[in-house]
Amino acid sequence: MRPGAHIKAAAEVLEDVLVRHRPAAQALADWGKAHRFAGSGDRAAIGNLVYDALRRKRSLAAQMGADTPRALALGAAPRALGMSIDAVIASADGSPYALEPPSEVERLALSYEMPQDAPPSMRGDFPDWLEPSFIRAFGGAAAEEGAALARRAPVDLRVNTLKADREKVLKALARFAAGPTPLSPIGVRLPAPDGPGRHPNVEAETGHGRGWYEVQDEGSQVAALMAGAGPRQQVLDICAGAGGKTLAFAALMRNTGQLYAYDDDAVRLRPIFERLKRAGVRNAQVLAAGDGAALTALGPRFDLVFVDAPCTGSGAWRRRPDAKWRVRPANLVQRQEQQRALLDRGASLTKPGGRLVYATCSVLPEENGDQVAAFLERHAEFTLLPWREAWAAGVGGDAPSSADGSDATLLLTPAHHGTDGFFIAVLRRRE
User: Fold this and answer.
1) Distance between CA atoms of residues 10 and 50, nearest Å
2) Which of 160, 203, 156 is nearest to 182 (CA)?
3) How far apart are the first and last CA of the chain?
4) Which segments of 297-376 are extended strands (E)?
5) Residue 198's pLDDT band (boundaries 50, 70, 90)?
6) How is domain 218-429 classified at the CATH fold level?
7) CA 373 to each of CA 188, 307, 376, 416: distance values in angstroms, whole numbers, following the listed order
8) How far is it, in rounded angstroms, from Cα 109 to Cα 63?
9) Contacts of 103 (CB under 8 A, 6+ apart)
10) Distance between CA 137 and CA 405 in Å, rounded?
11) Closest alpha carbon to 139 in 422, 420, 415, 426
12) Among 167, 194, 261, 380, which one is least packed by beta carbons within 10 Å?
């Protein structure tokens, strides 16, 4: 397929996403099934263009003077496909597999540069209604933080130290330009592709099949390390999902002690069984999804309760940009209610002297610092452990600064740390 066909196909997929409100991954998969002549390279180029257009939808709409699928596909094409503006214009020649030629307005818009006094939400590519939250979190850097969340993300891997070490994984993936993560001592990073390039399918590699590594963002790795799980402890992952942090805890515990994984959602929890087996985990018990009575019956026995709470997912917008434009104020309120309930439940299961670690893949203060402050007001038996202490004990090395300047809790962001947006608070129950 020629570049003009890639742009037209991306516009068709964006129509499915923006007008019919379908998830981008599903829309792309269905387009591929209906156009089996498209090779893997073509599908990668189209997917990159669709996701880049969604990442930068707000600024592209301002640039092009419209937020139609056609406008977004044209506006995103130079960067997403590594093309010059003249080449993009030439590719839209009205042929059967290309867009109609650009208007004079569209031609001029392709050269538009965003003014520095544009609103932070426009420069940072996030919804207007979230601008106050971003300013609360980042002050004058709100636009820069948002813009970093609108760029492509690398692929981060967590080395499973039950079966391998970092050097072994780096060697196995050397042909993909794999390198060590800068913060996590057990992480490997594959850089984000440029233009129409694509990420390698690392889960198809022999090392993954042997359980040497799992795909996990560095921010999530740091959260697991800071939690302080160790040998012979009692540990509960209360929002385990597919089990990424459960696997990380098992390795830190060296397959000793007792590790429990729980989630309310059976569909989210289902993959954990295969992952535990592949990773060689022997100390984990998976509770039945949604069985709150079984969870409560465990009682306050745990040295560590980890709450990776459901949230708006603003920290993961690099990977799921369509979710950025679907989130609404009502969704934020709903998530806050869930977070409060999970923190209270986690508190009831933490033993005296134990830790309750609260984490979100969000950068919004309403889901992060505000929740921790409200929890401490409700639970005088808990104190907040300054995050640098948890960093020194679990991660090691020089600690960076928190993206929001806090000394009490840690906010990781792509702009500051090269990770997804991730918030971590370590709470300790008094003896």
Assistant:
1) 5
2) 156
3) 66
4) 302-308, 350-360
5) confident
6) Rossmann fold (3.40.50)
7) 34, 16, 5, 24
8) 6
9) none
10) 9
11) 415
12) 380
The full 3-state SS of 107-157, as one line of letters, equals HHHCCCCCCCCCCHHHHHCCCHHHHHHHHHHHHHHHHHHHHHCCCCCCEEE
Neighbours of 175 (CB within 10 A): 7
| Encoded tokens for 216 | 């996990």
Q: In which residue ranges of the chain is CATH 3.40.50.150 found? A: 218-429
Q: Which stretches of 35-84 are DSSP H helices? A: 40-55, 57-64, 69-81
CB-based contact 150:55 (threshold 8 Å): yes
In whole angstroms, what separates CA 124 from the centre of its chain? 17
Show the CA angle centred on residue 199, arms to residues 195 and 200, nearest 5°.
140
Structural tokens at position 160:
């499973």
The rounded distance, in Å, linking the Cα atoms of 424 and 408 is 10
pLDDT in tens, 261-273: 999 999 999 999 9
- Residue 49 CA, distance from chain mean position: 19
Q: State the average pLDDT for the chain.
A: 96
Compute the distance between CA of residue 15 and CA of residue 207 in angstroms, rounded to an integer.
Answer: 38
How many other C-beta atoms can be found within 10 angstroms of the C-beta atom of residue 111?
9
* 361 annotated active-site: yes
Instruction: State the amino acid at position 212 in one-letter form.
Output: W
Q: Are 213 and 274 in contact (CB under 8 A)?
A: no
> Which pair of tokens denotes residue 40?
């893997």
Round the CA-based radius of gyration of the chain to a whole number and report it. 23
pLDDT 10s digits, 52-111: 999 999 999 999 999 999 999 999 999 999 999 999 999 999 999 999 999 999 999 999
The H-or-E segment that residue 371 falls in is helix 369-378
| Cross-strand partners of 307 | 358
CB atoms within 10 A of CB 162: 18
- 38 falls in which pLDDT band (50, 70, 90)? confident
One-letter amino acid identity for 121?
Answer: S
- CA 73 – CA 81 distance, rounded (Å): 11
23 φ, ψ to 5°?
A: -60, 140
CB 228 within 8 A of CB 216: no
Residue 238 to residue 227: CA distance in whole angstroms: 13
pLDDT higher than threshold 90 for residue 344: yes
Three-class secondary structure of residue 410 per DSSP: strand
